[in-house]
Amino acid sequence: MGNLIIGFQTVFLPLNLILVILGSMSGIIFGALPGISSAMGCVLLMTFTYKMGPISAMLLLTSAFCGSTYGGSITSILFAAPGTPSNVMTVLDGYPLKKQGRGGEALGIAITCSVIGGLFSVLMLFLIALPLSKIAMKFGPPEFLALAILGLTAVSSFGSKSQLKALLSCCIGLILATIGADLITGIERFTFNSRLLINGVHFIPVMIGAFAVSEVFNQISELTKIEALEVKPVKVKLMSWLTFLKFKWLILKSAVLGVLVGVLPGTGGTIASIIAYSEAVRTSNHPERFGKGAIEGVIAAETANNASTGGALVPTITLGIPGSGTTAVMLGAFIVHGLRPGPLLIPTQPKLFYSILVGMFIANILLFFGGYLGIKIITQISNFPYAIQGTTILLLCVIGSYALNNDIGNVWVMLISGIVGFFFRKIEFPIAPLILGLVLGELAEQSLRQSLLVFGGKWLPIFLRPVSGTIFIIVLISLVYPYIRNYLHYGK
Amino acid sequence: MLVELIIQIIILLMFLFLFIDTFFFLHVNIGGSFGPEGWPRIVLSIGILLTLICIYKIVREKKYIAVSLSKEKLQKFIIAFIIMLIYTLLIKPFGFVLTTPFLAAAYMYQMGIRKPFHLIFSSLLLSAVFIFLFGRVLQVNLPRGLGSIRFLSFYFY
Fold first, then answer.
1. Spatial contact of A197 and A378, defined as CB atoms under 8 Å apart
2. SS3 of residue A181 by DSSP
3. φ and ψ at B70, to 5 degrees?
4. DSSP A382
5. For A5-18, how does the pLDDT look when each residue is reduced to its tens digit (9 = 90+)?
6. Which of A36, A93, A191, B108 is the most buried (most CB within 10 A)?
């Protein structure tokens, strides 16, 4: 309880409170703009945090994470253009509602359900994270190896169209992570006598290049700009108590599903909203209404994707295992600010953890107000020519890469990653697994080598320990799951 | 098909090259664990296997992504890349203040802003906002350039 009070005191310092407000608002804007994903928004915002303390930096980024998940619903409802992938399901009923002249109602429902889902996820983060980190303190290298492998394979199995390409992308990330001096022996690997490569490839410029620069290059090559949006006044109508009471169980069910799915590595808001939406259709008395403007569809999708935010941070903070591109960026931000997420983070940095909790709580409350303002701002920003938006993003990318450690080498890494990311997008090669491979590579390698040292070079004991063995079984299931799913659905 | 196949072959060649390179690492025997070459070899072996499967799927099963990369699109991408390449080459000797307005103007021109006044005004304003925000307010280190340009940059941030 004392820590929670300290968290409130920290967040309510004027600077931190401003950062939470700014984070929340910028998150809404990034989330709403098609072409700027949640991960890309957080990467761009990270540029602003280099000179901040870790608490302030994480408050800005986690608030943006909360805001971006909601922000995507605005353009989903108004223009049938989901700002982030996790808002795809919102389009199905949100846009038909808007066409029926009920856009204000849909936006109000999206705001209310996003806030409820977000607050529920903060509560769950509070309840789950501490016990999980206590359990994780008993983990040894085999368990961390298993968790790292789970993180890598799950994102490939659940979060991608092609498991094969996702695994390949993971391998590229893992190999990039080996560049530089080996941490155990100090021997140089893949440096080719280059001074620039001795310290390895920093994952921040790779993230910036792969997520942001490649997207701008893509927009330039496609010759498309974000179309000027037709601005019509929409009066937002918050969800009434009657509607809330009518759908209270659907909201609760979607929130629980969102948190549970969010906790699983490799899933996140998109899968959470799909599962919650499917569940809403399955249990509805009028499934035929879905896709034609059923408010239950907006409720389920928006509650679940926002509920997944807190869930997604659970493994990131307590185990140091991010499950998605956005949480990989979060992990990167922790490391940039000298922190190492894992079981020891909460016991050693309680102020930081509780400040994040309180910050996310405030950020979610702010969605109520930011939601209104966000709709107005977004329609204005969307009218900006892409020439300005794209150039701004590129300048942020350059500064974000250079200022990391005042090294032009990082700008080169960013540029190369941008080109690779551009071509990967073209052949639908997922980028998130590459980033996860780069982030988790060191942990996976060190854990494997330490495990082999402990067990005298024997591999079998790694798989026979209760926790690591169970996780490896889950890894195996997640690897074969797509094939079973295809077989059941298509019979092949 | 061709674009995807070329990319997969490049990845395969890169993996093979790196795999061979692991044999030139200094070998150190540490207890029961493997040396610095062990982990990269495991990952590269899996990578090579996966790439071969991907290539097989493209060539034999004709499972590939129809890439919409026309000559015009590729040209636009190459120009965008060259602008950033030149900027990256020049930013160290000439600094952020001198090079950024040109970068901004080049991209804005490429993305459709044609009126000279709009182009000059927008690029200068955007650069000024970035220099003020990051250089002054947030105290982020921006490239200063060399020689007298470095000296000049201290007037801005």
1. no
2. strand
3. -75, 170
4. T
5. 888 888 888 888 99
6. A93
| Whole-number Å distance between alpha carbons of A9 and A55 | 12
**Contact (Cβ atoms closer than 8 angstroms) between residue A277 and residue A301:** yes
**A354 part of contact set with chain B, CB < 8 Å:** no
pLDDT the model gives residue A105 = 85
Cα distance between residue A180 and residue A47, in whole Å: 25
Residue A214's alpha-carbon distances to A235, A405, A415, A422, in angstroms, are 37, 22, 9, 5
- Note whether A221 contacts B139, CB cutoff 8 Å: no
Task: Quote the CA–CA distance of A327 and A404 in Å, as a whole number.
Answer: 19
Element of type H or E holding A188: strand A188-189
* Of B109, B73, B119, the residue nearest A219 (C-alpha): B73
Give the end-to-end CA distance of chain B in Å, rounded to a whole number: 50
First to last CA, chain A: 55
Q: Are strands A188-189 and A180-181 parallel, antiparallel or unpaired?
A: antiparallel
* DSSP one-letter code for B30: B
Of A430, A372, A371, nearest in space to A69 by CA: A371
- Rounded CA-CA distance A364/A63 in Å is 8
The string of DSSP letters for A238-266 reads PPPHHHHHHTHHHHHHHHHHHHHHHHSTT
Tokens 């302030």 sit on residue? A56
pLDDT one-digit tens code per residue, A291-345 = 778 888 889 988 988 888 888 888 888 888 886 778 888 888 888 888 888 888 8
Give A-chain residues touching B49 at CB under 8 angstroms: none
3-state DSSP call for residue B33? strand
Cβ–Cβ below 8 Å for B143 and A223 = no
The Cα–Cα gap between A1 and A126 comes to 11
Taking the model in full, what pTM does it have? Answer: 0.79
Selecting from B28, B69, B74 the residue whose C-beta is nearest the C-beta of A187 gives: B28
- A242, HSE (Cβ side, Cα atoms, 13 Å): 0
Its ipTM equals: 0.91
pLDDT level of residue A235 (50, 70, 90 thresholds):
confident
The residue assigned the tokens 């400040």 is A355
Q: How far is CA A60 from CA A80, A345, A421, in A?
A: 28, 19, 26
Q: pLDDT tens digits for A332-371? A: 888 888 888 888 888 888 888 899 989 999 998 888 877 7
- Please report residues of B whose CB lies closer than 8 A to that of A419: 81
Residue A231 identity (one-letter amino acid): V
